Amino acid sequence: MHRIMLVDDETNILHALRRALPHELHYEGALFPITVESFSEPEAALRRVTEAAFDVVIADYRMPAMNGVEFLKGLKAIQPQTARIIVSGYADLQGLVGAINEAQIFRFIAKPWTDYELNAALAQALAYRAIMLENQRLADEVRVQRGQLSRQAMELRRLEEENPGITRVNWGPDGSILMEGWDE
Questions:
Q1: First vs last Cα of the chain: how many Å apart?
Q2: Cβ atoms of 84 and 75 closer than 8 Å
Q3: Which residues of 13-34 are buried (b: 16+ CB within 10 A; e: fewer)?
Q4: Nearest Cα to 64, choosing from 34, 83, 43, 35?
Q5: Comparing C-alpha atoms, which of 75, 83, 68 is closest to residue 132?
Q6: What whole-number distance in Å separates Cα of residue 103 and Cα of residue 82?
Q7: Angle in degrees, CA 40, 53, 124, rounded to 5
Q8: Nearest CA to 85 among 70, 64, 95, 100?
Q9: Nearest to 54 by CA among 106, 2, 105, 8
């Protein structure tokens, strides 16, 4: 199952995006079953990406609290392998260049979009991400064979990709492990 995140401050747009997405996408013979989570607040979406891995994130460019480029830059810092797509109804060339250069987006989709265009871009992003992850895995295998990477480090990378934050430990001043959400 591939996880897709939608982020837009307008709930009507979120509903339209959800309606446009099928339960599974087809691309060059590959089948991509998807599950979708949507957020109207980019801050809440960033909190969520620290808890769960997403394959593709589609974000609006103009949002009041945090614009799409800022949000996607934050996402990239947490989950660098996630494909990033921006949707916007504004033809802001400077903003688009920023999105490409700073957030390294995969695709820009203009509002109003067509369902075909949206689904094709999403399927391409999923296929591209699958290729990138396979390339990373193969490169890591070569590094292990050359002694440049241990199997343990390779496994830690894989676990971190699947479950963001699982490999990080929050140490207390006395050497204890601090657990989020637990009362002291």
A1: 37
A2: yes
A3: bbebbeeebeeebebeeeebeb
A4: 43
A5: 83
A6: 11
A7: 85
A8: 100
A9: 2
Q: Give the tens place of pLDDT for each residue, 14-62.
A: 999 999 998 888 777 778 889 999 999 999 999 999 989 999 999 998 8
CATH class label, 2-135: alpha beta
Q: Which stretches of the chain are DSSP H helices?
A: 11-20, 42-49, 68-78, 93-102, 115-145, 151-162
40 Cβ contact list (under 8 Å, min separation 6): 7, 8, 9, 10, 11, 14
Q: Give the phi and the psi of residue 4 in degrees, each rounded to 5.
A: -120, 135
The structural domains of the chain, with segments of one domain joined by +, span 2-135
Q: Pick left, alpha or beta for residue 147 (phi over 0 → left; psi -120 to 50 → alpha; otherwise beta).
A: left
pTM above 0.90, yes or no: no
Q: Which helix (H) or strand (E) holds 38?
A: strand 30-39
Report the half-sphere exposure of 76 (CA within 13 A, side-chain side). Answer: 18
* Model confidence pLDDT, tens digit, residues 147-169: 888 888 888 877 777 776 677 77
